[in-house]
Design brief:
It comes from Amaricoccus solimangrovi. The chain is α/β, with parallel strands linked by helices. The chain has helices spanning 3-8, 85-88, 128-133, 137-142, 159-170, 172-178, 199-204, 207-212, 229-241; strands at residues 13-22, 27-33, 45-52, 55-62, 71-77, 96-104, 117-123, 145-152, 182-188, 221-227, 255-259. It is globular, with a radius of gyration of 18 Å. Bound molecules: adenosine-2'-5'-diphosphate.
């Protein structure tokens, strides 16, 4: 390795990629080696990317695998002219990604006060951190009900979430931990499907309260939100209207938000 690249990589880990899966023409997932000693909390993100012209090109990616897993998993959008994803979508088995091994994030249990129900609201690839959280046993120790929602334009984009929930139900150990506490509410907005509509609209018009038994309340519920900036702002306003207070790692509260990866 030449000196310039060597310098650019200081503090970074190079991780071999495997299990690449293209879910739709807009989304794909892959696994990467977990460096020895790399610890993170389920729901956190790390900076990952590729070496481009001798320099690391990094973006924040939620780690979709749970903290106990021996590999790291990522779920990504493909943006044709996106500086990173236009390249990352072409990775092949055995190629290497770069990671800065300093995980951070607010979609973690430490940022939420105890309660009865946990709502995980996502759109598109915003489901990634929740793929980690719903496979984390602590989630089911802390909450009686876990309601994951994902809203996408098309039904095909919901396949990743459906496969994930199926995997949990078929896993001998996890299914025992999860029991009947996990629910997945998957909706589309553009392609007709069984269940349609933005979750923000479901909250406003009472469909979510009807589907889950009660409206959002700071007394009983905690919320994690991950999606686009506009989606986060709308969900945040709805949480605040319900009387909820935003939490952080230093001051746990009723809801937490994080922007999903964009390009
Ligand atoms: P819609 O089709 O009505 O725009 P995108 O692929 O653009 O990131 O969108 C992913 C999903 O998020 C789409 O189903 C989209 O619905 C929905 N969405 C977009 N903006 C918001 C918002 N402000 N609040 C809730 N859902 C949103």
């Amino acid at each position: 390795m030449n000196e310039v690249v060597d310098k650019a990589l200081r503090g970074m880990a190079l991780l071999k990629v495997s299990n690449i899966r293209h879910w739709t023409d807009r989304t794909f997932s892959f696994a990467a080696e977990r460096p020895a000693g790399f610890r993170f909390r389920s729901g956190e993100f790390a900076m990952i990317g590729l070496m481009v012209e001798g320099k690391p090109l990094l973006r924040a990616y939620s780690i979709a695998s749970p903290a106990w897993a021996d590999h790291l998993e990522f779920y990504s959008i493909k943006v044709d002219d996106g500086p990173l994803t236009s390249r990352l979508q072409k990775i092949a088995e055995g190629d290497e990604i770069v990671m800065r091994p300093k995980p951070v994030g607010t979609l973690v249990h430490d940022a939420l006060l105890p309660a009865k129900r946990l709502f995980l609201f996502s759109t598109g690839t915003g489901i990634a951190p929740f793929a980690s959280v719903i496979r984390e046993p602590e989630t089911y120790e802390r909450f009686d009900e876990v309601i994951l929602t994902q809203t996408c334009r098309d039904a095909g984009e919901l396949d990743y979430g459906h496969a994930l929930v199926r995997e949990i139900r078929e896993d001998e150990l996890l299914s025992e931990v999860v029991g009947d506490k996990l629910r997945f509410l998957a909706t589309t907005t553009r392609e007709p499907s069984e269940v349609m509509g933005r979750m923000t609209d479901w909250i406003r018009d009472g469909r979510l309260a009807e589907a889950t038994g009660a409206p959002l309340s700071p007394e009983t519920d905690r919320v994690m939100i991950c999606g686009s900036m506009a989606m986060l702002q709308e969900h945040k306003a709805l949480c605040e209207e319900a009387g909820m207070i935003e939490g952080s790692n230093s001051e746990p509260g009723h809801f937490v938000i994080e922007k999903a990866f964009v390009d």
